[in-house]
Amino acid sequence: MTSGPNLVARRLFAPIASSYERWAAVLSLGQDSRWRRRMVDGLSNTPKAAVLDVAAGTGSITRLLQARGWVVTAVDLSREMLSLHPGPARVLARAEQLPFADASFDALTFGYLLRYVDDPVGCLVELGRVVKSGGQIGMVEFGLPRGIWNPWWRLYSGTLLPQAGRLVGPGWRDVGSFLKGSIEDFYLAHPEPERLFKLAGFTEVRIEKLSLGGGVVAWGRKP
């Protein structure tokens, strides 16, 4: 059953599916693609590895994985986003209830997911369930800059981003108005992403903060 945060994600992203990648790059000031590449660079799979890309959207991470020679299955809860995904293996499903057997994949990736689930640790446990022992998991997420950079982030995310979204279109107006509160609420409840990974049972957890703290990439390993 789709829960509240899942419904928010579906409502937000369905109207912007066709323009998602183009405007995500513009409105993130070109940083979004950089974060995704860094996350994929941190994985250490061999050719032909089976990788599950969760919250795959229209395929920006999937394509990076495929370029490494990995065999990718894409999962997303948005039919509209997934319909534009170029990959041959696409599955409409929730991250909290993956329709795969235990230890089905050599690795797993996800982007901008944990803010849209009721229980981030429980979701990570479910993601880990389908990864083989010794396999990696990789995450891309927005960060919350600290110190002198926080006021600039608040100005951009709270004022400039919503205004830019209004110029792009109604769907992007809603996304632009939503993101600041969503990111702040998530980090108020979960200030250390590393702790979430460890609570879910992952080892060798690594966190990198990019773009002055505006982006976070993380990796862990299934014991």
Strand and helix map with partners:
Elements: H1 4-13, H2 20-27, H3 31-41, E1 50-54, H4 60-67, E2 71-76, H5 79-83, E3 90-92, E4 105-111, H6 120-129, E5 131-142, H7 149-168, H8 170-189, H9 193-199, E6 203-210, E7 215-221
Condensed summary:
The protein has one domain: Vaccinia Virus protein VP39 (Rossmann fold).
Please characterize this protein's 3D structure:
There is one protein chain. By secondary structure, this protein is of the alpha/beta class. The protein is built from nine helices and seven strands, in the order αααβαβαββαβαααββ. The chain has a seven-stranded mixed β-sheet with strand order 3-2-1-4-5-7-6, with helices on both faces. The mean pLDDT is 90.
- Proportion of helical residues: 40-55%
Question: What is the arithmetic mean of pLDDT?
Answer: 90
> How many strand elements?
7
General form: globular
Biggest sheet statistics: 7 strands, mixed
Keywords for this structure?
22% strand; Rossmann fold; 44% helix; globular; alpha/beta; 223 residues
